[in-house]
Amino acid sequence: MRINVILFVLVVLAWIQSCSRDKVVDRIYQTKNVVVVVIDGPRYTETWGQTGRPNVPYLNGILAPVGCTHAYFYNLGGTWTTSGHTALTTGIYQNINNTGGELPQNPGIFQHYLKKHPDENAFAWLITSKDKLEVLANCKDSKWKNKYLASTDCGVGGNGTGYRHDSITFRRVMYALEERKAKVLFVNFREPDFSGHKGDWTGYIRGIQQTDSMVHEIWKYIENDPFYKGKTSMFVTNDHGRHSNGVSNGFISHGCDCEGCRRIHLWSFGPDFKSGVVLNEAADLLDVHATIGELLQLHTLKSSGRVLTELFKK
Ligand SMILES: [Zn+2]
Ligand SMILES: [Zn+2]
To answer: Ligand 1 centroid to 81 CA: how many Å?
Structure first.
C-alpha cells in the first residue's frame, strides 16, 4: 500500500516536471525596442572593408567602438533588393519578384510582433525610400495575410508610386522616433544603390557617406532619448553588395553570387550586446531575423537563421 502511494507521488511529480518543461519561459532582456536600418547596396570594399574606412567615418569612429561589428557578414540568398530585405524580415531566403509585385511567402517580424502585441499597430513602422518594399508588411500565408499589419510609409506614396529621396525618409524616421515612439522600426535608404545603378561613382560614394551620417543621427537620438535609451537595440546592415570589379559591369549592378554581391556588413548595438568588438564568426541576413526574434521573445517566429549569441553579454 505504502509503495503504491510513493509510486503515485513520483508519477505526479514527473508529470508536473514534464509540463513545466513544455512551457515557454520568457527570457528577460533589457531590449524593448528594435531599430533596423538597411543601407541599400554598398560593397564591403567601399565600407568596412576599405583601408582607413574613409566613406564610413561615423560607423568606424563612433558606432563600431560602442557596438559589435561582424567582419564576415553575407547575403546568402538572392542578391536583389526585395529578396535581401525579405530575408531580414521573414528569416527565409525566398526568390521573390523584385518590383513590388509579390508578397513574401512568410510573415515578417512586424506580423509576429503585432500578433503578440495586438494593440501596438501604431508602434510598428516600416519606413522605406523604395516604394516596392511596402510588401514587407504583409505576406501570402493565408493564416497571416492582411492581419497584424504595421504602419507603412514607403516611397513617394506607397507601393507603385516610385522611390523618394533618402532625406525625406530620414525626416520620417526621426518623426517616427520623436513623435510616434516606434517600438519596432525597419528602415530602408535607397542609396548608395540608386546612384550605383546610374553608373555614378561619385554619387555612389556620396550615398555611402550620407547614409553613414544619417545612421549616426538616428543612433544619437536613441542614445539620448529617455524612451529609447538603454532599452533599444539597433542593427545597421545592407540588402546586398554589388559586383566585384571584373564581374559583369562592376559596381553598377548586382544580383549574382560573386564576393562583391554577397559580402556586406552588420553593426549591432544595444543594452544586451557587448560593445567595441569585431566578431569573426560568419553570419548572414537570416541571423539578424533570428536575433530580433530572441530579443523581442517572438515565440511564433520561425527562422532559418541562428541567434547571434556572440553579440550577447555573458
Ligand atoms: Zn538593394
Ligand atoms: Zn555579382
So the answer is: 3
Residues with CB under 5 A from ligand 1 (ion): 40-41, 81, 193, 239
pLDDT tens for 52-75 read 999 999 999 999 999 999 999 999
End-to-end CA distance of the chain: 51
Instruction: Quote the CA–CA distance of 65 and 202 in Å, as a whole number.
Output: 28
Residue 276: burial class (beta carbons within 10 Å; 0-12, 13-18, 19+): exposed
User: Assign residue 72 a region: left if phi > 0, alpha if psi is -120 to 50, beta otherwise?
Assistant: beta
Q: If you compute the radius of gyration of the chain from its CA atoms, what whole number of angstroms results? A: 21
CA distance 166 to 212: 12
Helical packing angle, 81-90 and 285-295, nearest 10°: 30
Q: How far is the CA of 193 from the centre of ligand 1 (A)?
A: 6
Ligand nearest to the backbone CA of 40? 1
Query: For the chain, which residues score pLDDT lower than 70?
Result: 1-25
Identify whether the C-beta of residue 43 lies closer than 8 Å to the C-beta of residue 239: no
